[in-house]
Amino acid sequence: MLQIKALHLENFGPFKGRQIINFSSDDGVTIIYGENMRGKTSLLNAIRFVFFGKVIGRSTKNMPLHKVGNWEEASAGRYGFSVRLDFDDSGHNYELTRRCVLKSGISAPSSDDDYGIEHYLKKDGDVLGPQQSQAELKRILPEQISRFFLFDGELLQEYEDLLSSETDMGRKISEAIERILGVPVLTSARATLHHLKEKSEHREATAAQGDQKTREFGNQLADLHAQRKELGKELERLESDLDRARSQKASLEEAMKKKERVAALLEKRDTIEKLLKQIESKRVAKESEVQQAMSSAWCALLTETLRETNKSLRARESTLQTELMRADVLKSLQVNAGAACPACMQDVSSEAQERLLASLHCLSITDRSEKDRELSTLRRKITALQQHEESGRAAVLKVLWNGLEEILIDYSAKRSEREEIDKQLENVDEEALRKTKFDFENIIRQIDVIEKGITKTRATLDENISDTEAIQKRLNKLSIGSVDGERKRRQFFSDLHSLFKDAVGAYREQLRKRVEADASTHFQALTTEPEYAGLQINGSYGLTIRHRDGSLIPVRSAGAEHVVALCLMGALQNNAPLRGPIVIDSPFGRLDRGHTRNIVRALPTMTKQVVLLVYDDELPPDLARSELKGKLRGEWMLERVTARHTNLAALKE
Amino acid sequence: MNSDKKTIGIAASNASALANIASIGRFASELDAAKFAMAYTIKEEVSIGSFDSVDTKWNVGSFDPDGSMRSLLEALFPDTTEPYRLAESLMNEGIKRLDEALSSNGDFYETLFSSK
After folding, report:
1. pLDDT digits over B1-31, tens only?
2. A291 to chain B, minimum CA–CA distance in Å?
3. Could you write out the DSSP letters of every residue in A187-226?
4. What CATH code would you report for A297-392?
5. Are A238 and A245 contacting, i.e. CB atoms less than 8 angstroms apart?
6. How far is Cα A213 from Cα A484, in angstroms, rounded to an integer?
7. What is the number of alpha carbons within 13 Å of residue A534 lying toward its C-beta?
8. How much is the ipTM here?
9. Among all residues of chain A, which has the CA nearest to that of B74?
10. Which residue ranges make up each domain of chain B?
11. CB-defined contacts A:B, below 8 A
12. Residue A627 and residue A244: Cα distance in Å, rounded?
């Protein structure tokens, strides 16, 4: 089993200069603590680089190596980097070195083309030749299964795709799982036996053609064999077309996903345009309403002044009215002098009349008309005041202004939103968007046609096999020496092929059961939910949580997804012929303390060597120490020197 | 003999300020804005300064078609004998002051709805 002993870095990512991490040779967990941007993912990538010459970015795509070297060194004109991994495997000692160096004559590199990659593998002190070195590495850690040894915690989410046989990612992971479990050994044997069986059938047919008694059968068998050969080729071609179409569909799906956002943006922009037009016409209407109302705004400003003035004018009007009424009464008394008293209807004595006339001071005609003019002017003013006071409706104006302001704010917000979308849509090729959609629909149709073609070819192949078997039965009844020998050979390979065919199915079923049982054991140790009894596996190695009442939990959180994926990892390690260390970057980011604790405790049971790349808050050192106890084999810290320079430091007890 | 004005004018120095007020205040016409400026001066009870010669903008028939403005001014300023001349001065003073106020805090809404 692969066991890492030391990782040597030189100018790799933030690791400036030469730096080294030593790993304990005892089974257990090594923890490397580092805050964000200190270089945890770079360490994982350093191992990837030394094995496969690749560095993976956050989007799971390969990163240009030109960008991997230490920036501080690069700014000082020193480019390139190297990684060396010291490890043991199957009792041998290995030293694997991979370097990225500037090509001669290049002083200021601008792309990967300006670099060359050198690598060599030492086994027990001897440098291996390139082919031998490739073969050794392929045996020790094949790239196709590296996802089970070196992984980013965040990408554990991908394992959810195993629950659906429809996704290409699910199919890819499922194939990788079978690879790590050793299924290809059996399937390759089955394919070889199939080839041998076919060959022996051809020989039998040729032998039968050689004898007059069996020639007719021989000819028919030869024809059927030739047809089968063609059908096999056709099936192979269709299957390869299907693979190609599926991967094309996957990349178009990916492009569609990216462009889905653009399509949604375009749709949103159209909706906003419509809304803007509606708001604009509302604005015009409201603005005209406000303008109309503003013609009396001046009255609203003076409402209080007008009211007060009106009040005082009305008081004066009342005084004047009283004065004039009094004058009218006195005047009538004067005019009616000598008549009976209008109150008691008795005659008024002459003395009384004289006294009365003496006491009356009637208004002169001039005074009277003066007062009348004043009253009339007053009334004119009061009418004007009242008219303008009533026009000044400040509350109505305020409602109108507020309404217009709201419309303007809404308009401005929508316009900003549209501008934001316009910015995002800059350089978007709408034609390309339509083409991707067209291509996607086209590839779906193609896949359908290919799948139908495969079904039809398989049916014809089955028919061919059944016809061949019928002729072989009839041929079996005729005993011809030369044909008998070939028949026995064909029978032997046919039996063996059937045996391996059944064995592949049986082995897969056994593996699934074993993986399910081991993953369930891990799950019971990891989950904090006592009602969960275990995991149930499907045909693609997807795992579903099983409740203790037997029902399956249909949906699960991102955190639960990570726990289940880790259980699968542990179960694969238990059942794989090839084992190795697990190096995980940020595995606890989505997990609560309870699950983190359980996982840390269970890690040493999953594989012999575990390397955790974590930040303090994700896994507090105290928690790690108390849960791992003697299984904690080393603690390292990624110490910041500058933004582009990190030092590896071993933590002292 | 009545010597009151037959036309109302705006001082040349106030012309652009009036256009600005009409726009900010969402008035349908400069006349509405000028009336508002007049009311502003009355409300603020400020003294009226002197202005250069004015350029005629409206005749009193447009300014006060039903004569109610004259009555109103006479009610508010009982001592005035020339209400239209007074209106003109109030307008010009108001335009000047409103323009100053809007330039300093720029909020017409406040001017319109805040009570003194």
Report:
1. 568 889 999 999 999 999 999 998 899 999 9
2. 5
3. HHHHHHHHHHHHHHHHHHHHHHHTSTTTHHHHHHHHHHHH
4. 1.10.287
5. no
6. 13
7. 12
8. 0.92
9. A381
10. 27-46+53-113
11. 80
12. 48
